[in-house]
Q: What sequence folds into this?
């Protein structure tokens, strides 16, 4: 059995095993690029605000919400930074809220078996990593750069799979590589820290015991402490949990991740900054794993152009899955395909 035939068999099996998940990842991934914009359009009456009225302080906002929903506490707030778009506030449980599409993309909506679902999607990313490279080798003999639209359905399908595969192979490879890195983030971070200078890790101080009956500081005071710790960064989100430091997510202008990768932990009773991690001063390993990996995966890395490119390339993945499956189907559904480059 020649090397090419072995590779063709492996390519076929990898594609069949991952097909359903790649179809789902591509479709949901393309939607997630503009998920926030679509959500704002569909729910305009919920998020639209009329600028001009005096803006409430965070303390006033939290007080009004908790008064409107007795027995509930604000656990998280995401800041819009747009005068005509409302901030998003979550009452308990609230933390970790995700849209339906995001839940499918990250863990197949299997909340009770999230780790197993993430492992399955990680394996699908590994298979895509192999498919994007093996496809180039299989394509090399014919070197198809355009589709013969005058051919029959099988010919067009075969050409479309090859042409899209070669033009999009780099982007599919990057989607797969970043997906693998995010699935096994801990192992990936350890590898980066061994290969690259880790630098000094910011010291994280322990939160002091709160005096009996002590009241927590106001949200405005906590935000002020976070801003003082990282001047020049906007507050993107804030998570509040009883008995724990307030988690303030911040974003510098060059940080294009949706929620920001700079992070400040503030003692809710004293206002002391327990830890401050800035993307501007973080070591290279941190920037790669926590910043650039996600920016590449979501298309945010260079702004509007790369977001559009990520959306289009994500849509190509379901097309590749469908055309590849049709090629196999047209070849009598053999699991040991003949060593041929013909469409069948």
A:
């Amino acid at each position: 059995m020649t090397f090419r035939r072995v590779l063709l068999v492996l390519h076929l099996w990898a594609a069949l095993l991952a097909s359903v998940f790649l179809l789902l990842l591509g479709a949901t991934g393309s939607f997630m690029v503009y998920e926030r914009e679509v959500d704002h359009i569909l729910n305009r009456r919920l998020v639209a605000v009329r600028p001009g009225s005096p803006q409430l302080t965070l303390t006033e906002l939290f007080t009004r919400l908790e008064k409107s929903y007795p027995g509930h506490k604000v656990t998280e707030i995401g800041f819009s930074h747009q005068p005509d778009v409302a901030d998003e506030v979550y009452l308990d449980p609230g933390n970790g809220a995700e849209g339906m599409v995001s839940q499918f993309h990250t863990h197949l909506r299997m909340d009770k078996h999230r780790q197993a679902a993430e492992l399955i999607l990680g394996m699908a990313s590994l298979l895509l990593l192999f498919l994007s490279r093996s496809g180039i080798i299989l394509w090399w003999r014919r070197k198809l750069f355009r589709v013969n639209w005058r051919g029959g359905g099988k010919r067009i399908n075969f050409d479309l799979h090859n042409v899209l595969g070669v033009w999009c192979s780099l982007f599919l490879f990057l989607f797969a590589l970043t997906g693998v890195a995010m699935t096994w983030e801990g192992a990936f971070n350890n590898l980066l820290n061994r290969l690259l200078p880790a630098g000094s890790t910011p010291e994280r101080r322990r939160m002091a015991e709160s005096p009996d009956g002590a009241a927590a500081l106001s949200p405005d005071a906590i935000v002020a402490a976070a801003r003082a710790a990282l001047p020049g960064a906007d507050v993107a989100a804030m998570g509040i949990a009883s008995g724990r430091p307030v988690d303030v997510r911040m974003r510098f202008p060059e940080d294009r991740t949706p929620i920001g990768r700079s992070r400040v932990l503030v003692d809710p009773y004293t206002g002391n900054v327990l830890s401050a991690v800035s993307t501007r001063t973080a070591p290279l390993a941190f920037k790669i794993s926590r910043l650039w990996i996600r920016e590449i995966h979501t298309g945010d890395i260079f702004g509007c152009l790369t977001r559009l490119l990520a959306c289009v390339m994500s849509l190509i993945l379901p097309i590749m899955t469908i055309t590849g499956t049709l090629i196999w189907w047209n070849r009598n559904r053999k699991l040991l395909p003949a060593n041929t480059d013909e469409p069948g």
